[in-house]
User: Fold PLP-dependent aminotransferase from Malaciobacter pacificus.
Amino acid sequence: MKRSFVREILESIDNETISFAGGLPNEKLFPSKELKKCASKVLKNKEIYQYGLSNGIKELRQKIAKMYCNSGFKTNEENILITTGSQQAMFIISKYFENKSITLEKPSYLGAINIFKLNHIKMKEVDLKKDGIDIKKFEKSFAKTKLAYLIPDFQNPTSTTYSKTKRDEVAKIIKKYDGILIEDSPYSELYFEKKETLISSQIPNNSFHLGSFSKTLSPSLRIGWIRASKELIDSLIIIKESIDLHSSGISQYILNEYLKDDANFEKHTQKIRDDYQDKMEYFCKCLDKYLPTFKYTKPKGGMFIYGSFKKIDTFELVKKAMKEKVLFVPGNQFYTNKEKINNEIRFNYTNSSKKDIKKGIKTISKLI
Amino acid sequence: MKRSFVREILESIDNETISFAGGLPNEKLFPSKELKKCASKVLKNKEIYQYGLSNGIKELRQKIAKMYCNSGFKTNEENILITTGSQQAMFIISKYFENKSITLEKPSYLGAINIFKLNHIKMKEVDLKKDGIDIKKFEKSFAKTKLAYLIPDFQNPTSTTYSKTKRDEVAKIIKKYDGILIEDSPYSELYFEKKETLISSQIPNNSFHLGSFSKTLSPSLRIGWIRASKELIDSLIIIKESIDLHSSGISQYILNEYLKDDANFEKHTQKIRDDYQDKMEYFCKCLDKYLPTFKYTKPKGGMFIYGSFKKIDTFELVKKAMKEKVLFVPGNQFYTNKEKINNEIRFNYTNSSKKDIKKGIKTISKLI
Assistant:
């Protein structure tokens, strides 16, 4: 297996590069002062330096459980498993289902595609429509796989957001076949209009719901989590323990301290939403002005703008753009069969200044 | 698969328990003041909160490479992969070798045994002698598996330390069959007499050498590493990336800051060695006094005393001891076939006070 193109791109970035490639949060918004203060407070205590529980420190699991309860989704700390980023959550669950088949969106998160391959999971892709997955095709596929991987909120890469109807229909199908949904929600808090209702809340015993602090606080913490029934969590702990015993205690304690002030966390998240919405609007304006042949749907949240040209091979285009120090991800990366020529692009808008957004899009416009 | 008995025991410990079970470092020796100071210094910088490289931050890899160079083992940062504890190092390598066969010591580290099972690796156990693995049987097994997992320094669970001759013989066999050695060294720095020479230094392209800061600094950091040829490291990065993208950046940056003062780190490690040697001597004295029928070899380093009774089923004994709030690990846990009755015990001596050591051993003596 080859390394992911996006990770390779990320590692080739230098100071002069304008990158619309990765899913990087805006560095300027990291709450460094607050996190430093929290660290000073907790790093005094000797006991935080010891080995900890495989499922994560109890206080942190309780706080995450409370977030679910606040939105009406009954959850307690036994339903939570802390993971080293939600990437690890995906890996643990995939290891649990190794050699099985899975229904997923077409296109989908390429990190997940790589994890499925690594764990010998056969992937059945189902087309994404504007309001979510194609329901008829989904049911046909799910009837066989009994396992699905979906990103219903501001999907990666397409930013598609599932309608209320689609969410209900998916939940109904999962129940009908008594299967399992893996609902991946790294972007759920990055909404511009309203927070969507999790599909998992309708099927609490037939779902893994994945969350992360990477997009709201800091990816460097590497703290994500899985919400599932106690029985499913217990099965996963064996795998979690084998993979790394437990996630960084230092990260967990600092984060736990930060979350004690939930009003402040909400204020911080709102600041990110405002900043990203502003960036997104500006990005769209520049696309319309300098790349009018690029057709896209305006996102309702998240970190990406996805769209397509009529006839441009975007994999060839990115190679040219890289020479001009501008990066984006060609759409072919998000399909299980990457060989097919593809005319789509995913742009990330969260980690570039407005000046660079304009400059980067203008540079691309000169290459087509 | 069931959860590891040791982890389950660890999670059942309360304040009144005297535990000789886990491999827990002495909490009192964690350098909390220094680590807190390092955190205050690095957590100011916004850039440390961003996503990082999958193989780990460069400065930290350089410092680890320098440690190898200092002992005459040529290494640079491209030979190092930072992992979420050396537990994850084991998982990544095992995933890389999934479905293969491996030669390992009998008994061996139970975390490794669980990882091999999880990755469908067939285990071929070879007896441990007082000076290391039985060389004739090792060669016979390695000729077939071409892959070995050994813990030559203060082995877990037996505290066995390989002689110079055994190290040379193992290296020769690995070379002869052009196979691979996984050399696990979490305890190497915890020597009471002298530092041993790594087998990997004789076979730099045919080995994975695993190290960790869990025993010298803090397990809560969850920072370990793999040293291997650049080619082997590059193959592992794909798996590392899929498992958690990268290890906690917060942990890595704090640790990197701490290691800038290597004289201080060495002084700290010496303090740990002195403390553990003192505890070990006291533990042995109590064993000789209160449990004279328990036969063991005095360790030259590490965290464990291993030995056996003539005719006592230690799995039954630990169940009785648990009721009296004293814990240890019965030897059967360290064999691939745990069902066999076993008369062996692993005692950890690093995380109990002298008072508790005496009290715990006396309690056990009353149960036999």
About this structure: The CA atoms of residues 321 and 328 of chain A lie 8 Å apart. DSSP finds twelve helices and 14 strands in chain A. Chain A has a mean pLDDT of 95. The first helix of chain A runs from residue 5 to 12.
